[in-house]
Design goal:
heterodimer, A: 383 residues, alpha/beta, Peroxisomal Thiolase, Chain A, domain 1, 2 domains, two-stranded antiparallel sheet, 11 strands, B: 141 residues, mainly beta, OB fold (Dihydrolipoamide Acetyltransferase, E2P), three-stranded antiparallel sheet, 2 helices, globular, binds zinc ion
Chain lengths: 383, 141
Amino acid sequence: MQTNESRRVAVVGVGDVDYGKYYRQRDLHYVRDPYALGIEAFKNALEDSGLTKDDIDGVICVRDIKQYDQFCYRIGIDKPRLVNGLESSGRQSGLALQYAAMAIATGMANTVAVVYSNNGRTAKYNYGSTGDAGDPFGILHGMTSPGAQVGAMFARYCHDYNASEEVLAKIAISQRYHASMTPNAVFKKLLTMDDYMGAKYITEPLRLFDYCLINDGAVCIILSSVERAKDLKKPVVEMIATSACGDMKSMYMKEDFFYGALQKISADLQGQAGIKLTDIDNMQIYDNFTPTVVFSLEGLGLCGRGEASQYIDEVGITLGQSVRPVNTSGGHISETYMQGFNHQVECVRQLRHECGERQVKDSKLSLYVCAAPILTGHIFARL
Amino acid sequence: MEESMRENVASLLPVVTEYEAPFWNGLQDGKLMVQECKSCGHKQFPPSPVCTECLSEKVEWVEASGKASLWSKVEFNKAYLKPYPDVPYAVAVARLEEGPLVEGRFSAENYKKVPIDAELKVTFVDTQDGTKIVEFVPVND
Ligand SMILES: [Zn+2]
């Protein structure tokens, strides 16, 4: 594998759609076309990068872009050197960027577009009605949906560390505040502790505001070499570290709340980047449900086990209060449920200093992490 | 399986492969079965064609003791599955004496009053269509 200058990897383009506008269009009588959504994001990413479609020699399709050949046909890319599709779980978003980066680093492809779309709202997905094929015994007993699995972990966590749902409320309230400054976010109205505590339980111990949204949208992220990135119009955002680790059990829930795998990711990222986590300027943490943020803060080693609530009070997660704010665009629970893709876009925009009133001042280093059955993490740097 | 087909609890049962059959048959006979490796003694659930520790094929089915402890619990307020439209209902995640975590039903009363780490025992209940499922109850009930 080559590691010369030309094969360092950068994100050169990001594109998405107006999530809030699409969410407010409630009376559609059709399912939004997943290819059309993906194409909208792809064109926006091309425009953002200054590239043309002829520069793209790799295409990775994710989730509702089920058929990569049909997608490539629709955008007129005939002979890509790297092309494939990834299934619909959120763990794929970090992996998709890793596969693109590996192809660029080895010279298999030069410029790769990762294209994701999600029409979950108009297609009426509810993440639980068809069960989890991996856990038939749980399904037979009514144990379905990822939210219930994360809820069970959080109930155990509360027992082990004498924690309460208040820590989740702090996360939900902070992220809603961030979303209020994100132009295309779905939910922008500020939340109070009373709003949070007054909301119904979906699967206790998790309430409505602990859950990700279900909305339609798409994201495209274009990666290329750092060398190429330097000729393009936007500030160069390099992927300076990336790591993955499976957590392979028969159930989604993990008895250690993903701690062991997160520790490996954290060590890899800090080692590769040659920095400490405390050098990071902003963090985008996968939040399918708010407890995942708690588990990630602890698993990364930003605080001790059981100390996330104290970390949130003392170091903070909120813009203007914390040296290292978390989920600065609002994340899955307030901005948009693009399954980690919106988080990775926010890493890039924060490092380019494009975030307006939610900009973390002088951001130079941004971290993405996703705790799921395949864990991933990256550190991006502004060159 | 199409969601619309899921009306009976029996419809939630998986299509059973050869090595799993003793587990699912045992459940309908009111027995919770786990696999025991005759090479290294490891006990496992859910099943595998081999021992997950030593890859031996000498795995045999044994009935679990029925002793367990409460690892965690949740209460569903949203009806996701057509055979289970009545909410709320609770699920216990229990650690069997043999080691594995398994999920089973928990009564609304036990969900409220039984603390995590409490000792439980396995019982079996008939659902509406006669399909047996596991319900965990406190050991002294
Ligand atoms: Zn063995």
